[in-house]
Specification:
alpha+beta; disordered N terminus; four-stranded antiparallel β-sheet; two-stranded antiparallel ribbon
């Protein structure tokens, strides 16, 4: 029996991606060919194919370092390998985006969880485990932008499907998702997801009360859920 053919393999040897020139294939990682690349600064860097072809990685890390210096004039961060390490990353725009992204995908108590993690959207393992990897792949966040899943607005947060985008760009890229109903109760207007998180009543319970039991939306989001006794 003949060996199964390998499909979709593209030899990147000798090709340039940003500051990186591919030298040779050295293995496989995350189901993607892994390449040894030489950066214009003289350092070697191992990168998988999809990070290169989608322009998620453009240098060994020196480009991000230079951009930080040019933007802030701050040399107080240190570099570990090819990844940027700030003294106070929690003060940066990039860190705020990273934390918010992880929260809405991984924290069921986040008010936006139902629209992200609740419908299966995840943060890739590389980004979820490492802020440094996130910054290396995404670069610095330009002022007036936030992270946007593009070109697939229903896809995951991962290299090749994310960009820094303005509000106008994001509005043009919104997926066709049914709107979360809004309910006004006691002078406060919130979506069902927000009422669910606020009053600790599941969305399914709220919908059952409204659609099957005939409750008013105001009553459905305000009456505490009954706890089953053991």
């Amino acid at each position: 029996m003949s060996a199964r053919p390998v499909h979709n393999f593209v030899d990147l040897t000798g090709r340039r991606f940003g500051r990186l020139v591919v030298q040779e294939r050295i293995g496989k990682h995350l189901r993607s060919p892994l390449w040894r690349c030489l950066c214009d600064c003289g350092k070697e860097h191992a990168v998988i194919s999809r990070y290169l072809v989608h322009e998620a990685t453009k240098s060994c890390g020196c480009l991000a370092k230079e951009t930080i210096i040019n933007r802030t004039g701050d040399h107080s961060f240190r570099f570990a390998g090819s990844l940027p390490k700030w003294k106070h990353p929690s003060h940066s725009r990039e860190y705020s985006s990273w934390k918010a992204m992880k929260s809405r995908c991984e924290n069921p108590n986040d008010q936006a969880f139902s629209r992200y993690g609740g419908r299966g959207i995840v943060v890739c393992e590389r980004w979820s485990k490492s802020f440094d990897a996130f910054v290396e792949d995404m670069g610095l966040r330009p002022e007036g932008t936030t992270i946007d899943r593009f070109p697939d607005p229903n896809g995951n947060y991962e290299p090749g499907n994310c960009r820094w985008a303005t509000l106008e760009e994001q509005n043009a890229n919104r997926p066709n998702i049914p709107a979360d109903p809004v309910v006004t109760h006691d002078g406060l207007t919130l979506t069902l997801s927000e009422w669910s998180a606020r009053n600790q009543i599941s969305r399914d319970t709220i919908r059952t009360r409204i659609n099957q039991l005939g409750w008013t939306p105001e009553r459905a989001v305000s009456v505490p859920a009954q706890r089953r006794s053991k």
